[in-house]
Automatic annotation (TrEMBL):
Origin superkingdom: Eukaryota
Biased composition (Acidic residues): 508-524
Ranges for region Disordered: 1-74, 95-135, 499-524
Name of the molecule in the record: Uncharacterized protein
Residue ranges, compositional bias (Low complexity): 31-41, 126-135
Length: 524
């Protein structure tokens, strides 16, 4: 006991020894050794957010901070490996993701959220802000994953031949089902057929209606154009006729008087012999051609006086005669009698035929050429036109020019037609009307003959014209102008054949000439 206490006391009495330096922690040293011995990865991955984050400051001792840094360095290779595994998994998921079929409006499939996270924020050790070589590998992997997600052909695609086959199978199944349905329900097929027929009929009706409306509109436009043209031509013809009438009434007498005076003065001043006197027209010879009666004898005297003035050049206008014959034999006899009248100069009788002029097709040119050559040779000659109702319409303007005041025309030079006589022989349609007109008043007979001739021409032309407005607005004013230039109209005395025809057809057909004469046509 004493010794124990002594030893204790000795122990206590001994001076304290110097404390030894605390050796480093073997665990940390071992870990550092293992870390230093571990081989570095061939390609370092990019730094992770955890590695880039600054080290957490601890308020503890310096040893604690050093230990935490040592643990972080030991864990970094493990995190690299985990990031690599997640990246590979994301690439595999993107390659295995199916794409929508062609033409689908849906957006292409994207990798999962985990894969997007691993692609967008890989873990990289802290390298002091420098890129790690392993980042190139992962960037290539990311581009490969994006190409797979965009469908560059590396992944499976829908559609193509399988889609086409599926579509054909669906169409075949639908058609077969419809056929079976129609076989079991024939009334449905009939209903479909009726609806199709009704739709086709409506389409045809609409097409016909549209075509008809377009055609009617086109016809209306053409008609309006023709009417406008006809109105313009009618207005021009009316203006021309009015101007010709004013010229005949006011200008022509003065000019004609001056020309006649100049002609007489020229002949007297030159000391030449006076011109040969024109043959005198015999009123008795003319009365022999007209119906019997005092009224017709007075008319014959007026005709003879007018013919004498025209031959002498004092009238300044040629004389127009319209003579109606009830039988072709009367027309031929009248032509011979007119040519043998005493007032016609020797060899100055020209006989023309309206039918022959129409067959020649010369129109105005043929008549004007014949008149020009004849009037140059015989200024005061007699022109007899048989079958005047067959004269071509184109020849009437030339006749109108010859019968105008100071009449004439240009045909290889100026041609004076103001001294000639122009007799138109008109075959009458009914001998009974001709005999009735011969027994009436000359004025009524004259109105009837003019109406019969000019309205007959106009009616025949209007029937052959496709545009009635042209006949009314263009031809009618021209015919009225020519009608005013006919000085005398009378029926010829009936011959034996005409009397026989009138007696045979008494009370049959024909136009009542008195009623026609009451419808006054000529304008004074």
């Amino acid at each position: 006991m004493v010794s124990t206490r002594g030893s204790r006391a000795s122990t206590r009495a001994e001076p304290p020894e110097e404390p030894a330096t605390k050796p480093p922690r073997a665990r940390a040293t071992a870990r550092r050794a293992s870390t230093a011995a571990a081989p570095a990865p061939a390609l370092s991955p990019p730094a992770s957010p955890q590695a880039r984050a600054p080290a957490k400051r601890t308020r503890g001792k310096a040893g604690t901070s050093a230990a935490a840094a040592t643990i972080d360095e030991d864990v970094t290779p493990i995190k690299h490996k985990a990031d690599t595994i997640r990246l590979d998994q994301a690439v595999a998921d993107a390659a295995a993701t199916p794409l929508p079929p062609d033409g689908d409006d849906a957006s292409p499939a994207l990798p999962s959220k985990r894969a997007r996270t691993s692609l967008s924020s890989p873990t990289t050790p802290a390298t002091g802000g420098k890129a790690v070589a392993g980042g190139r590998v992962k960037a290539a992997a990311r581009s490969k994953a994006g190409a797979a997600a965009r469908g560059d052909g590396s992944g499976p695609r829908r559609g193509g031949l399988p889609g086409l086959l599926l579509l054909l199978l669906t169409a075949s199944a639908t058609g077969g089902g419809g056929y079976l349905y129609l076989q079991r329900h024939p009334e449905a097929g009939e209903l479909l057929q009726q609806r199709a027929s009704a739709a086709a009929a409506r389409a045809r009706l609409e097409l016909y209606t549209t075509t008809t409306a377009l055609g009617e509109r086109a016809d209306a436009l053409r008609a309006r154009g023709r009417d406008a043209a006809a109105r313009a031509a009618g207005a021009a013809a009316a203006i021309q006729a009015a101007a010709a009438d004013k010229f005949d009434a006011h200008v022509a007498p003065r000019v004609g008087g001056l020309l006649e005076r100049a002609r007489s003065l020229t002949g007297a001043g030159a000391g030449s012999a006076p011109a040969a006197a024109a043959p005198a027209w015999d009123a008795g010879e003319i009365a022999a051609l007209l119906p019997a009666g005092a009224a017709w004898e007075e008319l014959a005297a007026d005709i003879a006086e007018r013919l004498g003035g025209a031959a002498a050049g004092t009238g300044r206008k040629g004389v127009g005669l319209l003579l109606g014959c009830a039988h072709p034999s009367d027309c031929a006899a009248a032509a011979e009698a007119l040519a043998s009248l005493s007032g016609v100069p020797e060899g100055c009788a020209l006989r023309l035929d309206g039918g022959a002029l129409a067959e020649e097709g010369g129109g105005a040119g043929a008549l004007q050429s014949a008149l020009a050559s004849f009037l140059r040779r015989c200024p005061a000659g007699l022109t007899v036109v048989g079958n005047a109702d067959q004269l071509p319409l184109e020849s009437l303007p030339a006749l109108q020019s010859a019968l105008s005041e100071l009449g004439g025309f240009q045909h290889g030079g100026s041609v004076d037609a103001s001294r000639g006589v122009y007799a138109l022989l008109l075959p009458l349609p009914d001998a009974g009307d001709a005999r009735a007109a011969a027994g009436g008043e000359p004025s009524e007979a004259q109105a009837w003959l003019k109406r019969l001739y000019f309205e007959g021409i106009l009616g025949a032309e209007a029937a052959s014209e496709s545009d009635l407005a042209r006949a009314e607005n263009v031809l009618k004013p021209m015919l009225r102008a020519l009608q005013r230039r006919i000085d005398f109209a009378a029926p010829l005395r009936l011959g034996a054949d005409a009397e026989a025809a009138a007696a045979a057809g008494e009370g049959e057909g024909g136009e009542d000439w008195a009623d026609a004469a009451s419808d006054e046509v000529d304008e004074q």
